[in-house]
Specification:
Monomer. By secondary structure, the chain is α/β, with parallel strands linked by helices. About 35% of the residues lie in helices and about 20% in strands. The N and C termini lie far apart (about 50 Å).
Length: about 375
């Protein structure tokens, strides 16, 4: 099999690694010029039955444990007036059920486990036809199986379905506080070692401790239009003005919440949230398939990376089990993936609905502590 993987994200790299472990070569084509070309985002919580299962299949579970943060499982849940609804502090001997891991560290672990020639940087996929890949620089490559691991705005997806991501009504602004223990020790104590959530009526603030000492802050605005960033009055080209406007939008919230916004650095990023239809499927087609966000883009509530990693691992195992029947391997993988990720997408949509509700804090408390 001549296997071409488009996209060097977590799912595509997990597939390449599982294939490599099973003696099958594959090439990953990535549009970025190098592995350090851009920031890889914040922390992920890898679940024992999905993301960690994939790391075991890849033979990398020990490496994962070395970079995982048990304390990242800590959680503080508050209402906008500062009322503490839930505080969960992780004991030092607690199992690693959902530990946090820096996305960049996890990606590097996967990259370092592959032969150097397995990833071709600077190859932006444009199209595919008759077993030939075409790249933006005019080069091409042959393939027997093309795997689209190219994320939310996948170009490979169009070979299988007309489905496209749609706006969810949620817009997010991301900020960061570098080296928070030194620069803002009071706010570091507020956030704690893991996740800090403040949920209100159609808005929320989540702060997340990262392994490098940074805290990433995500301000969510639900029930907002796709063009909301253009009409919100947030001057993204003026960081100080943007922070001031964001504090206005959280008027009446506890002062510790707005203090986190005020302490943010000058990198302030707008992030519209889009998803693919829940339960998206397509007719199995020899020679092409999808994984991760390219196949089942969900709200960012903890399922996406876990599903992508497991997609990659299970597709790799299916191909290893059917080395002479690639279409059968793809069909087996897709059948399981559709059922598994459809259920995950439905749960993610429910959590998204809870977060957008008027009594989000109390409903999320009930989600974490069911009667």
């Amino acid at each position: 099999m001549n296997i071409a993987i488009v996209g060097a994200g977590l799912g595509g790299l997990a597939l390449a690694r599982v294939l490599h472990v099973n003696g099958i070569d594959a090439v990953v084509y990535e549009r970025e010029p190098s592995h350090g070309a851009r920031s890889q985002g914040g922390m992920l919580d890898l679940h024992s039955g999905t993301g960690q299962r994939a790391m075991r299949a890849a033979g990398l579970i020990d490496g994962f444990h070395a970079i995982a943060r048990r304390a990242g499982q800590d959680l503080r849940l508050l209402e906008p007036d500062g009322t503490l609804l839930l505080q969960e502090d992780t004991p030092d001997d607690a199992p690693l059920d959902r530990p946090e891991v820096d996305r960049a560290d996890l990606r590097n672990l996967l990259l370092d486990s592959l032969p150097e020639q397995a990833v071709r940087w600077g190859h932006a996929f444009e199209a595919a036809d008759n077993g030939l890949l075409h790249f933006a620089d005019g080069s091409s490559a042959t393939y027997d199986l093309l795997v689209g691991a190219d994320g939310a705005n996948s170009r490979v997806r169009g070979l299988l379905t007309d489905a496209r991501p749609v706006h969810t009504g949620q817009n997010v602004v991301e900020l960061g506080i570098a080296d928070i223990d030194r620069t803002h020790p009071d706010l570091a104590a507020t956030v704690g070692r893991g996740n800090y959530w403040v949920l209100g009526n159609g808005q929320s603030l989540s702060a997340q401790r990262n392994g490098d000492g940074c805290v990433r802050i995500y301000l969510s605005f639900h029930h907002t239009a796709e063009d909301w960033f253009a009409t919100s009055g947030i001057p993204f080209d003026d960081p100080a003005g943007a922070r001031e406007r964001l504090i206005e939008l959280f008027h009446g919230w506890d002062s510790q919440v707005t203090a986190l916004i005020a302490a943010g650095d000058d990198t302030i990023l707008p992030r519209p949230i889009t998803t693919l239809p829940v339960g998206l499927t397509w007719r199995s087609t020899p020679g092409v398939t999808l994984l991760g966000d390219a196949a089942h883009l969900m709200p960012p509530v903890g399922q996406g990376a876990n599903m992508a990693l497991l997609d990659g691992a299970l597709l790799g195992l299916a191909l290893a089990a059917h080395p002479d029947d690639c279409p059968a391997a793809v069909e087996e993988y897709e059948r399981e993936m559709f059922e598994r990720t459809g259920a995950a997408a439905r749960q993610s949509a429910f959590v998204q609905e809870v977060l957008a509700s008027p009594d989000a804090g109390r409903r999320m408390l009930a989600f974490f502590q069911p009667a």
